[in-house]
Amino acid sequence: MSTSRRILAGLLAALAVAPAVHAWGRQGHAIVAELAQRRLSPAAEAEVERLLAPEHTRSLADIASWADELRGDDSRADLAKATGKLHYINFRADDCVYVPPRDCADGQCVVGGLDRYVAVLADRTQPDAARLEALKFVVHFVGDVHQPLHAGYRDDKGGNTYQVQFQGKGTNLHSVWDSGLLGTHGKDWRDYAQELDARPAETMPAPIAPRDNVYAQWAEQSCAATRGIYPEGHQIDDAYVAAELPLAERQLRVAGVRLAEVLNRALAK
Length: 269
What we know:
The chain is mainly alpha-helical. It has helices at 3-16, 25-37, 42-52, 66-69, 77-83, 100-103, 110-122, 128-145, 173-183, 189-198, 214-225, 238-266; strands at 163-166, 169-172, 235-236.
């Protein structure tokens, strides 16, 4: 093998095991946003449309991955860096109990991100530009907190360092949950959202005490869901997909309902 081919092979191998950085991927985030949009109140729908007008769209799905795309925009590098830790939470203990000073120091986690940007979105005294930016972050972070491995454990960085074999290739568990599982469905995100929305209404998870921070409860519920998703032998096979895809789909549906509830409250007249 030539030197250039060895270098290329090495780069491809490195990419195969590189840590994932996007929760759900574009498909999953678009599905959550679409499911939420179908549940907006008339007041929230009107305000979403007004805020999105400068983006030349009315669709939440169109802005659902914006917070991830910041990382590739040199002009927004400072904002991407400042909000990087707001996409996830790493629990320090396997009991999945949220302890703010330990798990979200200075609000630097997805729970803190939702606290911050929902408040900006709901504040009508804020400039429209700030509220539009907040809307983009809220839509994205609600999706993030429902991807179980974005609320996982610090020791393996939410599954990023847990290597697996999936579809004959090396990758990590986080990446599988970001997009690999959903990709096995084989449908466009619009068709996938329609299919999920047509199913019987999802029974929402029961609240976890204490009830003083609903976003923390969502993170705790996602963390608890990680306990059964680590595959034996580090192999993601058809049996694993059949067993775990329903959980991923449930998380998408629950996220869509909850995002609609957040937006309906924040954007009420």
